[in-house]
Amino acid sequence: MSTDDSPLPNFARGTDGLLPAIAQDATNDRVLMMAWMNEEAWKETLQSGYAVYYSRSRSQLWRKGETSGHRQQIEEIRVDCDADTILLKVHQKGAACHEGFESCFFRKVNAEGTVAIADERLVDPAQVYGKKSS
Amino acid sequence: MSTDDSPLPNFARGTDGLLPAIAQDATNDRVLMMAWMNEEAWKETLQSGYAVYYSRSRSQLWRKGETSGHRQQIEEIRVDCDADTILLKVHQKGAACHEGFESCFFRKVNAEGTVAIADERLVDPAQVYGKKSS
What we know:
Chain A has helices at residues 39-48, 125-129, and strands at residues 2-3, 19-25, 31-37, 52-55, 60-63, 72-79, 86-92, 107-109, 115-117. By secondary structure, chain A is mainly β.
């Protein structure tokens, strides 16, 4: 491993200062979800050791798992060649997806171009989030 | 596996009609890169069986590997819960990264918050792309 003076994530490159962050399960390498980070979310992720994103719909920091308990403990962080995408390797507690699946990518595109659910649901979202499942 | 009437990728949700597309190696599950797709790129990906993205810097379709030969043959396509992120499982020929690494995520963030190259370079970009390495 060699040191490198390449920049850390360059949030100025993102639309509205947001960069895509991919969460990958550190144990089974499954891609769990993609969300957005601003610089504040990035710093809090580094500082806390848990994934913190920025919710575009709520316009605020999103401490993943704050409601559900399904937190993502950081194992490793990588940054891509253009310093504008972040990869988090995480230890996922519970289901990553708010719909109760291990991964948000539970829908598979078939050869005909249609979509079908390809995974089993792990948990009932109503149990995790109360009546509101999203 | 059950059928589902959920939408295919909803390109209207993306900024400028672009959605993030994550490429993951179908063999070793490594996350290789993140790029952008518009609806045209999506359709050509489905039709051709090879990853086609949209280059924001060149404002045109980017048939991955057209110059380098480092094409990505599609093994499986998944769409996330919000239908606004695409996951491609691919058979990657050569190096996914234009800097000659297997994955664009070759930089690791250390505990101190600095960045270091954590992988070995597979190929010399000058050999693949000619004098211009980007």
